[in-house]
């Protein structure tokens, strides 16, 4: 039996059980442990360890040296350290909105955390057309608490720069820079374009020089604007929910960047749920109820974020110049503009690029899928090109319903 203390290797289910028994002190000595590898993401191995006697369970998340989505992506296992650190920090800033972290192992590159088996992945729940009336309130609180408190508005500037240094994440940022900001907007060989959508993509996306220029501006802002500590991959597959709780998981893409990046990802993935509902629900009343809920959630998420941000800003900001008249309005408007732009980028890249979402790919009828994808591309393009015109939730809804 290995001691797990000498060098890294990717664990099997049996080895994850051995690791739990020899390296952790979470379960009693007589526990009957079983393991299931449940990872279905693009990067990591996720083991659920359960004691068959008590029902107690934990998650061991292990980072490998290459992405599961493709061997082309070489990724540093240090992302697991980053994830552990940010979960602990977010647990303080937004208590109750992230899983508890029990242990981090720098040799095996794994993090041991709370099992959220009683929760549902939000994307999966949306595919079943379930609704969560408290979600907008929960996610807006999480976003305000994590984005404002990690910025120069609140932190001592030296302390903030130390955090920037701690969360430098070049390999994961490179994936974002490639898959979100670059590859979808030219005929990159790695793109995967649905046949029914290709003609639109070639003419309206790849052939649009104005759009290309704006994405270039946005890419350089992403790379250089160390505004807030981001989750970095905040889609509905990274959010667990119950009727009363919301938990944000998988912050391994965390780094310092534009605050609107996280908000824009949330809004775009709500929109994917919306297009799935429009194209898969055949009962008109059910379709209007679900899609109406999604639109209202988009509006509430943006407007509640603004409302809570303003309140927290007035209460928590320590930077002298941030108190100047008009600065709050300027700062918050820039965040909403970035939200619109990133929402547009995410809508485009999930249709054109390598990493897809089930909301779209599970639309079975080819014509409906093409229609859904073209809708996403039209909305995405509008949001990118006209991002300065968005300042509240209703502005977003107007673009969606008129597209």
Automatic annotation (TrEMBL):
PANTHER family assigned to the protein according to its UniProt record, in alphabetical order: METHYLTHIORIBOSE KINASE
Pfam families, per the entry: APH (PF01636)
Enzyme Commission numbers on file: 2.7.1.100
Protein family membership: Belongs to the methylthioribose kinase family.
Record bears the keyword Iron: no
Keyword Zinc: no
Complex formation: Homodimer.
The encoding gene: mtnK
Family matches, as InterPro entries: Aminoglycoside_PTrfase, Kinase-like_dom_sf, Methylthioribose_kinase
Protein name: S-methyl-5-thioribose kinase
Taxonomy, superkingdom: Bacteria
């Amino acid at each position: 039996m290995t001691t797990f203390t000498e060098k890294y290797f990717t664990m099997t289910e049996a080895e994850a059980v051995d690791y739990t028994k020899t390296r952790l002190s979470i379960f009693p000595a007589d526990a009957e442990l079983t393991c299931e590898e449940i990872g279905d993401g693009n990067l990591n191995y996720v083991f659920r360890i359960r004691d068959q006697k008590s029902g107690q369970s934990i998650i061991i998340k292990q980072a490998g040296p290459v992405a599961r989505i493709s061997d082309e992506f070489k990724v540093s296992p240090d992302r697991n350290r980053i994830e552990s650190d940010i979960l602990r920090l977010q647990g303080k800033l937004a208590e109750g909105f992230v899983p508890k972290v029990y242990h981090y192992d720098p040799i095996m590159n794994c993090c041991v955390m709370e099992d959220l088996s009683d929760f549902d992945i939000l994307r999966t729940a949306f595919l079943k057309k379930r609704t969560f009336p408290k979600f907008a309130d929960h996610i807006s609180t999480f976003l305000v608490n994590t984005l404002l408190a990690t910025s120069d508005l609140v932190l001592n500037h030296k302390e903030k720069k130390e955090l920037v240094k701690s969360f430098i994440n070049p390999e994961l940022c490179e994936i974002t820079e490639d898959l979100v900001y670059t590859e979808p907007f030219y005929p990159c060989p790695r793109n995967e374009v649905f046949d029914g959508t290709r003609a639109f993509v070639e003419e309206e996306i790849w052939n649009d020089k104005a759009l290309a220029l704006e994405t270039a501006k946005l890419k350089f802002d992403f790379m250089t604007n160390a505004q807030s500590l981001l989750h970095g991959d905040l889609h509905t597959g990274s959010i667990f929910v119950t009727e009363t709780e919301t938990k944000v998981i998988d912050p391994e893409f965390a780094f310092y960047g534009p605050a609107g990046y996280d908000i824009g990802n949330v809004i775009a993935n709500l929109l994917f749920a919306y297009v799935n509902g429009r194209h898969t629900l055949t009962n008109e009343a059910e379709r209007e109820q679900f899609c109406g809920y999604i639109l209202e959630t988009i509006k509430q998420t943006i407007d509640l974020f603004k409302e809570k941000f303003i309140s927290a800003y007035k209460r928590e900001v320590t930077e002298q110049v941030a108190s100047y008249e008009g600065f709050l309005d300027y700062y918050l408007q820039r965040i909403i503009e970035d939200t619109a732009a990133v929402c547009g980028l995410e809508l485009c890249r999930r249709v054109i690029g390598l990493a897809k979402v089930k909301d779209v790919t599970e639309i079975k009828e080819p014509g409906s899928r093409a229609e859904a994808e073209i809708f996403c591309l039209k909305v995405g393009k509008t949001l990118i090109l006209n991002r300065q015109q968005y300042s509240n939730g209703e502005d977003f809804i107007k673009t969606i319903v008129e597209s």
